[in-house]
Specification:
alpha+beta; NADH Oxidase; 10 helices; 12% strand; binds flavin mononucleotide
Length: 216
């Protein structure tokens, strides 16, 4: 069993997190912390375990310089230490399902044939959905990864900003996602808050627990 955090520590970290508007461009996430954060993306759970996504880490300064223009001028995409583009597969096809089941057989050291009932369920689930429904479903999965990434970062004292304020088609073009079979759905720069970011000290605006939680 890992060492778990305390309730107080958990709340302290979640209250410390805020959507960072201004990152310190000079502070970089140490490699060990980044490797853990990258793994938090890959460890994200998904419906049927299908992982219909890929996480693009934009390191190239040249590519990043092109992004604010397609992000409503938001500079977090260039200033943050790391920039994650959460993208979903444009097609979850039969070959992908095969790859997933082969991987499952390998990792769990089981006979591929024993996975047939599960395979039937997966294929039935996917074939019962239109292309639009599949894309909406895949987007929901990507947002689970976003939540896991932000929460994990907060535990490490790393700032993030979830971002929907960008033009996915332009990101797909600039980062060559379309030709790779992906489309961008949400972004998350990660790094360290700039001391001048006044948003860090603004009180959180949330409805009360009484309004948002209901015991039935
Ligand atoms: C999916 C999503 C998209 C968001 N897009 C942006 C964005 O493009 N730019 C931005 O500055 N903040 C963005 N935000 C941040 C929210 O405005 C912020 O999380 C919310 O006001 C609550 O504040 P807090 O995160 O500081 O507690 C986004 C948040 C979420 C969850």
């Amino acid at each position: 069993m890992p060492n778990f955090t305390t309730a107080t520590d958990l709340l302290d970290r979640l209250k410390w997190r805020y959507a960072t508007k201004k990152f310190d461009p000079d502070r970089k996430i140490p490699d060990a912390d980044w490797q853990a954060l990258a793994s938090s993306l890959v460890l994200t759970p998904s419906s049927l375990g299908l992982q219909p996504w890929k996480f693009f880490i934009v390191e190239s300064a040249e590519l990043r310089a092109q992004l604010p223009e397609h992000s409503f001028g938001q500079t977090q995409v260039i200033d943050a230490s790391h920039l994650v583009v959460f993208a979903i597969k444009t097609e979850v096809d039969s070959a992908y399902v095969d790859a997933y089941l082969n991987r499952m057989a390998e990792v769990r050291n089981t006979d591929r044939a024993s996975l047939e009932p599960f395979e039937k369920m997966v294929r039935g689930f996917l074939s019962g959905k239109s292309q639009d429904e599949l894309q909406s479903w895949a987007k929901l999965q990507a947002y689970i990864a976003l939540g896991q990434f932000m929460g994990s970062a907060a535990h490490l004292g790393i700032d993030t900003c979830p971002m929907e304020g960008f033009v996915p088609a332009e990101y797909d073009r600039i980062l060559s996602l379309t030709e790779k079979g992906y489309t961008a759905v949400v972004l998350c720069p990660a790094g360290y808050r700039d001391p001048s970011d006044r948003y860090a000290s603004l009180p959180k605006v949330r409805f009360s627990n009484d309004e948002m939680l209901e015991i039935l």
